[in-house]
UniProtKB/TrEMBL annotation:
Keywords: ATP-binding, Kinase, Nucleotide-binding, Transferase. GO terms for cellular component: autophagosome; cytosol; membrane; phagophore assembly site. GO terms for molecular function: ATP binding; protein serine/threonine kinase activity; protein tyrosine kinase activity. Residues 24-262 form the Protein kinase domain. This is Protein kinase domain-containing protein. The keyword Lyase does not apply. The lineage of its organism: Bacteria, Bacillati, Bacillota, Bacilli, Bacillales.
Length: 262
C-alpha cells in the first residue's frame, strides 16, 4: 500500500501557476474530484477566465482514452442554459486529455454557509430549492441525472443559481428502480437520485440558521422547528415517504409550503 501511495502521489503532481496548456495559462488549482482535477485558467487570446479539467493521472492508467472526460464534455454540450457551464474546448496536452468550460463568478453554498457564515430561513430555503428544481428539470429533460447535487456543486451568483461538476452524471435508466441502501440513493440512475440529494441540500440550508446548546444528537425532525408541509417535502425527497415522481408536483409543494409560513 505504501508503494502504491508513493506512486500515486508522484503522478498527482499539480500544474503550477503560470504553466501554459495550449491556449490557456494556469492561475490556480480549484479542486480535485473523483476522476478529474480542475484549474482556474486564463485564455491567452482574450484573457477571459475559464475552468480546465484534466483526468487525474491514476485514472489515466485505467482510462487512457479519456472516456470519462469525453462523457462529461458531451453532457455539457447537451445543456444549453446559462445556469450550466458551457463547453469551450477539448484537447490533449502531453498525452493528458482535458476540456475547458465556462467559469462562473459567485460562491458555492459550501462557501456561503461554512466560510461566509450565511444563513437561510425556512422560506428562503424553500424558494432556493424551488428554483433549483427548475434547473434539475432541464437536466432530466435531456435524459441525464446529475447524481452529485451537493453544496460544493451549486453556486449562487448574485441571485442566479448555477450547477457545476457533471462528472458523475449518467443517462437516466428507464428500467424499474433497484432497491438500494440510503447511502446509495444518490448513485441511482433515476430522477430520484437528484431528488434525494435535493432533500439533503434543503437540510443544509435549514441547518445554517440552527443553533443548538444540547450535546445529545437528535434527528432533523426533532432539532429543526419546521412547518408540517416542509417536513413532508423533506420526507418525500429523502424517500422516507413515497417519493416525488415529477418536478411539477415538487415545485407546487415547495410553493405551497412557502406560502403557509407566517
Amino acid at each position: 500500500m505504501g508503494v502504491w501511495r508513493e506512486t500515486v502521489n508522484f503522478f498527482e503532481k499539480e500544474w503550477n501557476a503560470g504553466t501554459r496548456i495550449d491556449d490557456y495559462i494556469v492561475i490556480s488549482l480549484l479542486g480535485k474530484g473523483s476522476y478529474g482535477t480542475a484549474y482556474l485558467v486564463r485564455e491567452g487570446t482574450d484573457g477571459r477566465l475559464a475552468v480546465l479539467k484534466k483526468l487525474r493521472p491514476y485514472k489515466q492508467l485505467i482510462d487512457q482514452s479519456g472516456k470519462l472526460l469525453n462523457w462529461e464534455a458531451d453532457v455539457l454540450r447537451k445543456l444549453d442554459s446559462p445556469h450550466f457551464p458551457k463547453l469551450m474546448a477539448f484537447g490533449n496536452h502531453k498525452k493528458v486529455p482535458y476540456f475547458v468550460m465556462e467559469y462562473f463568478e459567485g460562491k458555492t453554498f459550501d462557501q456561503l454557509i461554512f466560510e461566509k457564515g450565511k444563513s437561510f430561513d425556512e422560506r428562503e430555503s424553500l424558494h432556493i430549492v424551488k428554483e433549483l428544481v427548475k434547473l434539475v428539470k432541464i437536466i432530466h429533460e435531456t435524459g441525464i441525472v446529475h447524481r452529485d447535487l451537493r453544496i460544493p456543486n451549486i453556486l449562487l451568483d448574485g441571485s442566479t443559481l448555477r450547477i457545476i461538476d457533471f462528472g458523475l452524471a449518467a443517462n437516466i435508466e428507464s428500467e424499474g428502480r433497484t432497491m438500494l441502501k440510503h447511502k446509495d440513493y444518490m448513485r441511482e440512475k433515476s430522477i430520484h437520485a437528484d431528488y434525494y440529494a435535493l432533500g439533503h441540500f434543503l437540510l443544509f440550508l435549514l441547518y445554517s440558521s440552527y443553533e443548538s446548546e444540547e450535546k445529545k444528537e437528535k434527528s432533523w425532525e426533532e432539532e429543526l422547528q419546521l412547518s408540517e408541509p416542509t417536513k413532508g417535502i423533506i420526507r418525500k425527497l429523502l424517500q422516507i415517504e413515497k417519493p416525488y415522481e415529477d418536478s411539477t408536483t415538487l415545485v407546487q409543494s415547495l410553493e405551497s409550503a412557502a406560502q403557509k409560513i407566517q
